[in-house]
Design brief:
Structural class: alpha/beta
CATH topology of one domain: FAD/NAD(P)-binding domain
Helix content: 25-40%
CATH class of one domain: Alpha Beta
Strand content: 15-25%
CATH architecture of one domain: 3-Layer(bba) Sandwich
Number of strands: 19
Shape: globular
Length: 366
């Protein structure tokens, strides 16, 4: 039986463990945290990710714990439409994305991995391309070593040396809110160097996120700062902020990786944020990790030569990373005249063009 050591027990690592174990591999997942639990809030999964989840046998269960996400488009701070989404056309061509809590997806993936396969509280310190992982409890060996250990990956050093993540220029806040009244219209609002978005979760709660142009490492005032920045924006944003719990607000500076020259070396392969950490503007971070998991498992099991994984995954994931970066650059514009021009331009783009532009991202099959 072939053996795989997977470093990282997040979405990409667990999905890879599921994919390989269902192909008959013996898997070992090494997770640094003392337990696998969700750090985050809401999560959107686009149809390409749902196909990946179907391929590893958990798509139906994920859908049963999610709701379809039908964004109304993009507005300005006063609530005026800048870009309207053609929900019907997206549903007909690709299927709608779904929204669920990150904790639910992790729970489903964890339950699909053999209980004994996951080892928590393990800090990995080194990897060699011959299949040896050095960690706080000794060593683990495998025919395949998977680096699913995030943007600050230890495994990545064994593949392409030290790579420094790049700050995108803005920070993000996330939270889950229980509103006093149901929220109908969903979508994003773009201001000057700031954004606010919200989407319904299946249980009546609402996932909210916000961004602002700030120097890296800027201290945040938490919910009070969000209310100061966004409290006079259009409804229902003030009501969502009024209903929020200060303890639920998460803040993270947004970083991405520069394009790596390769995702593989010898028996070691990178996936997810370890390979292509991207800005969240396309909602594709977790989706690309799920695609990675399916393709890596297939290549490792059927072909063995990991360069096929690199050739299949690197161009696509780096294209999506670059596209997400460009969207963020436009969305975070802050000069008043430039923002006015951006907003006017958005109003001229027909919904049909938006639907067609999604093809390179969503028309992916296993």
């Amino acid at each position: 039986m072939s053996e795989a050591v997977i470093v990282g027990g997040g979405i990409g690592g667990l999905a890879t463990a599921v994919a390989l174990s269902r192909r008959g591999w013996d898997v070992e997942v090494l997770e640094r945290a003392p337990r696998i639990e969700a750090v985050g809030a809401g999560l959107s999964l686009w149809p390409n990710a749902l196909r990946a989840l179907d391929a590893i046998g958990v798509g139906a269960e994920v859908r049963s714990r999610a709701s379809e996400e039908g964004s109304a488009g993009i507005r300005d701070e006063r609530g005026r439409i800048l870009s309207r989404t053609d929900i019907a056309a997206i549903r007909d061509r690709y299927g709608l994305p779904i929204m669920l809590h990150r904790a639910d997806l992790l729970e489903i993936l964890r339950a699909a991995v053999p209980e004994s396969a996951v080892r928590t509280g393990i800090s990995v310190t080194g990897v060699d391309e011959e299949g040896v992982v050095t960690h706080s409890e000794g060593e683990s060996k495998g025919d395949l070593i998977v680096g699913a250990d995030g943007i600050h990956s230890v495994v990545r050093r064994a593949v392409c040396g030290d790579i420094t993540p790049v700050y995108a220029g803005y920070t993000a806040w996330r939270m889950v809110v229980t509103p006093s009244e149901p929220i109908g219209d969903l979508g994003e609002t773009w201001g000057r160097g700031e954004r606010f978005g919200f989407a319904a979760l299946p249980d009546g709660r609402v996932y909210c996120f916000a961004t602002a142009n700030l120097p890296a490492g800027t201290e945040s005032g938490g919910l009070a700062e969000l209310r100061r920045r966004f409290g006079d924006w259009h409804a229902p944003i003030p009501a969502l902020l009024a209903a929020a719990d200060p303890a639920s607000v998460l803040k993270h500076d947004i970083y991405e990786l520069p394009p790596l020259p390769t995702y593989v070396r010898g028996t070691v392969a990178l996936l997810g944020d370890a390979a292509h950490a991207m800005t969240p503007n396309l909602g594709q971070g977790a989706c690309q990790a799920l695609e990675d998991a399916v393709i890596l498992a297939r290549v490792a099991d059927e072909r063995g030569d990991l360069t096929h994984y690199d050739r299949e995954r690197r161009p696509r994931s780096q294209m999506i990373t670059a596209r997400s970066r460009r969207i963020g650059t436009v969305a975070q514009l802050s000069s008043r005249p430039v923002v006015a021009l951006r907003n006017a331009s958005l109003r001229l783009v027909p919904p049909s063009a938006q639907v067609r532009a999604l093809a390179t991202v969503l028309d992916w099959t296993c």
